[in-house]
Amino acid sequence: MSKPEYVDIVEKVFSETKEKKTEEFRVIGKRIVKYDAIPKILGKPIFTADLLNLFKDVVFVYSVRSKYAHAWIKKIDVSDALKYPGVITVLTAKDIPGVNDVGYVIPDQPLLADKKVRMIGDTVALIVADSLENARDAADLVSVEYEPLDVILDPLKIVEWGGLREKEHTLIHDERGSDVLSRYKIRRGDIKKAEQEAAVVVENEYRTPMQEHAYLETEAAIAVPEPDGSVTVYAKTQCPFDTRKAVATVLGLPFNKVRIIAPPLGGGFGGAEDVGNEIAAKAALAAIKLGRPAAVLYTREESIIGHSKRHPMIARYKHYARRDGTLLGVQAEIILNTGAYASLGPFVGWRAVVHSTGPYKVPNAHVDLAVVYTNMVYAGAFRGFGNPQVTFAVERQMDLLAEELGIDPVELRLKNILRNGDRTVHGQLLDHGVGLEEAIRKAVEAAKWYEKRRLYSQQKGLLRRGIGIAVFYHGNSIGAEGADFSTATIIIQRDGSIVFRTGLTDFGQGNIQGLINIAAEILGVPPSYFKVEWPDTASTPDAGPTVASRSTVMGGNATLVAAYKLRQRLNKLAGEILGCDPDDIVIEAPKVYCRSDPNLSMTWQELVEQSFWKGVPIQEFGYFRAPPAEWDEETGQGAPYMHYTFGAIISDVEVDIETGVVRVKEAVTAYDIGRVINRVGADHHAIGGYIQGMGYALMEDIYHAPDGRVYNTNLSTYHIPTGLDIPDKIKPIWVEAGFKRGPFGAKGLGEPSIVAIAPSIANAIAHALGGGFKVNKDVNKHPLTPDYVYSIIKKHGLIKKYKG
Amino acid sequence: MAVKTVHVHLKVNGKDVELDVPPNERLIDTLRYRLKLTSVKEGCGRGECGICIVLVNGLPRHSCLTLTAAIDGAEITTLEGLAPEGKIHAIQMAFLETRGVQCGYCTQGFIMMAKALLDKTLDPSYEEIKEWLSSTLCRCGSYHYYFAAVKLAAKYIKEGKIYFDEEEVKKKYYMRVVGR
Ligand code: FES
Ligand code: FES
Predict the structure, then answer these.
(1) Hey, what long-range contacts does A576-579 have (CB within 8 A, 24 or more apart)?
(2) Which CATH superfamily, name and number, covers B6-81?
(3) Selection from B147, B173, B80, B38 nearest residue A727 by Cα
(4) Residue A410, domain extent
(5) Would you call B48 and A684 a contact, using CB atoms and an 8 Å cutoff?
(6) pLDDT per residue over A651-689, tens digit each?
(7) What DSSP character marks residue B4?
(8) What is the A697 CA–ligand 2 centroid distance (Å)?
(9) What secondary structure, in 3-state letters, does A171-192 show?
(10) Looking at chain B, which residue has its C-alpha nearest residue A264?
(11) pLDDT at residue number B131
């Protein structure tokens, strides 16, 4: 079968530019002031809630939440609420014209609960009132009769070690007959053989927390009923096309009668996927029922109990190795807690299992993973998507192994990492573009690893420094999770300016600027010629979801294809007009000329004008689809992702032995992203991802009370890093090993930027604590809060040890 | 319920405004929805995130914790009022040039704190900058950039460069390549 044209184009551009240095590009890899920077520093009204001022006669929709984390609903009585001043109507499940479901991957999550509640954030009714205040006040008047059920928060009440069999328990999803959402496995080689041959075995249990996205913009949606019976919704959503599907399902409308517009997001990080669907559906339902614009604006508390989180993990790992450090095998059982609903849990679980043995050559592997329901707030997508959890376990295991063997952690990793020509644990051949070794070597050099490691090992006293490394890989885009395509549209206007449209959303880290950089480089125009339109399902083709670090790779390829086709037409036309070969045409807008004779020239505007007269279309639609992933459910063998981003993180910390307080002093991140497209955005990911990962490592966790209520529902109890918590220096290093099916060789970075932060910090803390294998082994969960770190210090008598 | 309103007189970004507001109306809502000053952002409504900070009589204040009725006669500055029409303030310019803006949802809170700090001193130490700006959260993690922006802004102001022409800034910076 011949390759599709779009694949040819991407590969051709890669092969023509792969030797080029950043200096030789005009735009690619440069530092550029991004398109949205100026409106943002001017405080222009660009976020969803800001748009409220544009609409008249708006009604406000407030969600009445469950009082129990697990209960049957016996009766809902809204009569008192209806009498409250300002209340226009109260909507419950029976008011839904379509299907009462907003489940992202499987239909397991009602928009408005009517039979059962499964978590504290479930919505049972919507108060629609003339003001948000009245709507909130009236919420207390909705009376719901519940029959409480057992609340299960611990996934080990659902499945048990030694095969992850499901136990007897009160079913949360009785309609499914099981609370195991999905299972995955990897079977490679013969783990028994690894066990027999191993000189050392390292075994431990790991736990990672439920992290909250804590984007500063809380959820907002405004729905406007249209005269033709359709509805337009402005909503904070990462995935407008998925949101459209959810709204259409709930309202029972065809897709073309639901229009979703996604203004810029005040942070997303994966959290604005399913909740975007939910808020849009709530607003749209009210708007359609009342024929008035309807707004949903979440408070911080609603946001925290009402949107998905990062899956907590519990895992047991066994690593087998030779005396020289060569890995022989990995055995693991992993449980991900998806809380009340599946959300993207099945895909998170799959990504976790794919990465569950780290970026190493592992000849024998036996991994089982189960994603299970509990009555916690539901878990879904969060930057990293299952990989940070398993990478924490794997990278802690590697440090334990290094300690056990008396090998430097860097050396142990260098001995086992994947390089060009190696096969992954899934049997996938990585024939090019594996920049992990280079990333490790550069990070080690920049962080002065060997020097510091030696120095810190000899330190005395109670303020102790430690340095730790963690490495990882991360499959690009969505792999076997679904149809992996993206699109972009470039429309050159008659005056030469350009409109850029894509359905991919911008959460601020610079993905869309990256697409502009690609289009500008290919077309030969300055990026400032472009205007970026907001994603709008009515005017942008389905671009797939903005998830899985796919903007730059998938959206970038689609953009590259569109720009390339346009450029070819323009070259041909210019060649005809100027009398030279199309390949001879140079576009350096506003100049267009023949390379062989620069006197043969015209302006960009003339060329654009001529295309109108000569009938050359100057709008183009770009499409790219990744080659279908291969995955054998029974063995976990195949080629799960098109390619991988690689990285190495080194963290340098200080631990106060008397208090357990940890401070990160310095950090180096080295990522192989194939090719830097948008340097400002790349740095933002590296630094911002580090800081978010540091929060994950040291302070962030959603705590549930035994009855399933959330203790920390605001930012004074759910702590994220402030300006006083961060290290003074985080140094990003870029490795550009290329990848033939990425735009100019680029790979994704959005999610990778958080994957290995927590283990690098944990490894540094273990180093600072010193005290041998047993202490090291106890650093097995995070967040590494002062009380947890102090408990390790106390258990092992470290104060006494270091005081003397 | 018919709520009695309170009459307040405010000076907002240099303009006099007369308002009748319910006694429990928060300043953030007055600014955002009555006066359409949507630079002011809400992140928590509880004084925890700092992105709603505006200057009330020259001092930083959480507009989510301030009742409009309680500050009759106050002078208020929001991001919109930092520079005259058609101009960009040195602090905004510095935030632009140091390229820290990611989602930008937090930025106004940082800019307003920076303004309050630089009104006090034009030679803030790095520690002082960190201290002042630590009341505002940035989940995208742009803190380092914002700290650098305050230094640069102080330099501009000391050099007497307080306002920049908005059109020129746009021409010079909108998607321009500024470095390797
Ligand atoms: S909204 Fe005022 S401090 Fe967060
Ligand atoms: S730039 Fe997004 S929160 Fe600061």
Answers:
(1) A577/A602, A577/A607, A577/A610, A578/A602
(2) Beta-grasp domain (3.10.20.30)
(3) B147
(4) 313-479+631-803
(5) no
(6) 999 999 999 999 999 999 999 999 999 999 999 999 999
(7) P
(8) 20
(9) CCCCCCCCCEEEEEEEEECCHH
(10) B103
(11) 96
Say if ligand 1 is within 6 A of residue B47 CB: yes
Structure tokens at A786: 């002062």
CA A634 to chain centre: 27
Ligand 1 contact via B58 beta carbon (within 6 Å): no
At A639, list the tokens: 């080629």
The protein residue with its alpha carbon nearest to ligand 2, atom 4, reads B138
Strand bridging mode A591-594 / B163-165: unpaired
Q: Are A772 and A402 in contact (CB under 8 A)?
A: no
N residues, chain B? 180
Structure tokens belonging to residue A282: 């709530």
Read off the pLDDT of residues A487-525 as tens digits, 9 standing for 90 and up.
Answer: 999 999 999 999 999 999 999 988 999 999 999 999 999
Residue A238 sits in the same domain as residue A318: no
List CB contacts (< 8 A) between A679 and chain B: 180
Burial of residue A21 (number of CB atoms within 10 Å: 0-12, 13-18, 19+): exposed
Chain A, 336 to 355: residues with Cβ < 8 Å from chain B are: none
Listing DSSP states for A628-639 in one string gives PPEE-TTT--EE
Contact B103 A29 (CB under 8 A): no
Residue A263: the pLDDT is 97
User: Measured from the CB, is residue B105 less than 6 Å from ligand 2?
Assistant: yes
Architecture of domain B87-178: Orthogonal Bundle (1.10)
Provide the number of structural domains found in chain A.
3
Q: Residue B21 forms beta bridges with which residues?
A: B6
Question: Hey, is the C-beta of A19 within 8 angstroms of any chain B C-beta?
Answer: no
Q: Which residues pair with A649 in a beta bridge?
A: A470, A669
Dist. CA A604–CA A593, nearest whole Å:
10
Residue A158 lies in a domain: no
Report which of A185, A210, A612 is spatially closest to residue A382, judged by C-alpha positions. Answer: A210
Q: Is the pLDDT of residue B2 over 70?
A: no
Quote the radius of gyration of chain B (alpha carbons, Å). Answer: 17
Ligand 1 centroid to residue A777 C-alpha, Å: 41
Nearest CA to ligand 2 atom 3: B138
First-to-last alpha carbon distance for chain B, in angstroms, is 61
Mean pLDDT of chain A, nearest integer: 96
Helix (H) or strand (E) holding A350: helix A345-354
Q: Name which of A551, A160, A245 is nearest A383 in CA terms.
A: A551
Q: How far is A306 from chain B (nearest CA, A)?
A: 15
CB pairs under 8 A between A and B: 194
A67 part of contact set with chain B, CB < 8 Å: no
Among the candidates A579, A599, A625, a domain finishes at A625
Residues 6+ apart with CB under 8 A from A613: none
Helix axes B107-120, B126-133, angle to 10 degrees: 130
How far apart are the two ends of chain A, measured CA to CA in Å? Answer: 73
Residues of B in contact with A299 (CB under 8 A): 45
> Taking a C-beta distance cutoff of 8 angstroms, is the pair A525, A719 a contact?
no
Cα–Cα distance, A589 to A575 (Å, whole number): 15
Flag whether residue A21 sits within 8 Å of chain B, measured between CB atoms: no
> Which tokens belong to A784?
């590494």
Ligand nearest the Cα atom of residue B140: 2
Smallest-distance ligand from the CA of B28:
1
Count the neighbouring beta carbons within 10 Å of the beta carbon of residue A31.
17
Q: CA torsion angle for A532, A538, A544, A549 (degrees, to 10)?
A: 30
Query: Could you tell me the distance, in angstroms and rounded to a whole number, from the CA of residue B51 to the centre of ligand 2?
Result: 10
Residues 691-710 of A with CB under 8 A from B: 691-692
pTM of the model: 0.98
- Give me the residue spans of the domains in chain B: 6-81, 87-178
ipTM above 0.95, yes or no: yes
- Per-window interface: A 491-520 vs B, CB < 8 A: 507-510, 513, 516
